[in-house]
Amino acid sequence: MARTLRVLVGKPGLDGHDRGAKVVASALRDAGMEVIYTGLRATPEAIVATAIQESCDVIGLSVLSGAHETIAKRILELLRARGAEIPILMGGVIPPEDRERLRALGVGAIFGQEASLQEIVEGVRQLAASDGDADDQTHHEEGIQ
């Protein structure tokens, strides 16, 4: 029997809108995953500490504020400092010109708003099963919101 995947869905920064993140969290639960949702305005430190404490397989970040690069850098720095190898994916309002920089930082996947819930579920599964890189998931325009 396969182990249940554990996914943290985080809303870092000052975003005040989390409907999309909650919809994605529900889809992941419906797909048999255990989801830990941080709620609004979670700090990178809280996200990393929770992901490690909860033995998460993947961290999904929803960023609508435009601070996606700063947040990704900080979370990846904190993960490295703690010796944690947990792949992250991002969604939200992320301009196409920022995606390659996010990938270069170590973000494993970026989902666009046109991504179906099934694509996101499969992307999470791929990240959990891989080295943290879901190459085919980077073409989406926006994503987990």
CATH topology: Rossmann fold
Q: How many helices?
A: 5
What is the succession of H and E elements?
Answer: EHEHEHEHEH
Low-confidence stretches: 136-145
> In order across it, which strands form the biggest sheet?
2-1-3-4-5
Average pLDDT for all residues: 89
CATH architecture label: 3-Layer(aba) Sandwich
Beta-strand residue fraction? 15-25%
Tell me which oligomeric state these chains represent. Answer: single chain
Intertermini distance: 32 Å
**How many domain units?**
1
Mind telling me the CATH class?
Alpha Beta
- Please state the overall shape, judged from the principal axes of the Cα atoms: globular
Question: What's the name of the CATH homologous superfamily?
Answer: Cobalamin-binding domain
The beta-strand count equals: 5
Structural class of the helix and strand makeup? alpha/beta
Largest β-sheet summary: 5 strands, parallel
Radius of gyration: 13 Å
Share of helix among residues? 40-55%
